[in-house]
Design a protein that fits this description.
Number of strands: 3
Number of helices: 6
Distance between the termini: 28 Å
CATH topology of the largest domain: Rossmann fold
Shape: globular
Order of helices and strands: EHHHHHEHE
CATH architecture of the largest domain: 3-Layer(aba) Sandwich
Strand order of the largest sheet: 1-2-3
CATH superfamily of the largest domain: HAD superfamily/HAD-like
Radius of gyration: 17 Å
């Protein structure tokens, strides 16, 4: 069997290259419990998978906003609050993100980011954090979320 050389490495954006601590803190400042972030993202990803299974698509922000409102209502909090959504636009890089990207580049690998978000919003996060990758791959062009084969 012939050996294959790895040519590229792809990183997930939210929760891997970027910490989700800011939206977690924003939720907690509204009175939500620590685990609310995971509940919110679980609802977003469930909606994304459902849309994909029925051959439909909506951009991430169109899923995140109603999922947030629903969760806030379920927690007895004000559903008009948007601070957690705003925090998604100001994610901080994970402590080891820059070093991981540099190691990959030093090894001669092409670096990419995979995201459920838009290309534009992901590029803004990368630029804000000073993180450099060769490619950003978003669900937007194919209009399918994971686990679709697209």
């Amino acid at each position: 069997m012939a050996a294959h050389r790895v040519a590229a490495v792809a990183f997930d954006a939210m929760g891997t290259l970027f910490s989700l601590e800011r939206p977690r803190v924003a939720l907690m400042e509204l009175g939500a419990p620590h685990a609310a972030l995971e509940l919110w993202f679980q609802r977003i990803l469930q909606c994304a998978a459902t849309l994909t299974l029925v051959d439909q698509f909506a951009p991430f922000d169109e899923l995140a906003a109603p999922a947030l409102r629903t969760m806030l209502v379920q927690l007895g909090l004000d559903p008009r609050r948007t601070e957690p959504l705003e925090a998604l636009e100001e994610l901080e890089p994970a402590p080891d993100a820059a070093a991981a990207l540099e190691l990959a580049r030093a090894a001669g690998l092409t670096t990419a980011v995979l995201t459920n978000g838009s290309i534009d919003s992901t590029i803004r996060l990368l630029e804000r954090a000073g993180l450099v990758v060769q490619q950003v791959v978003s669900v937007d062009p194919v209009q399918r979320y994971k686990p679709h084969a697209a």
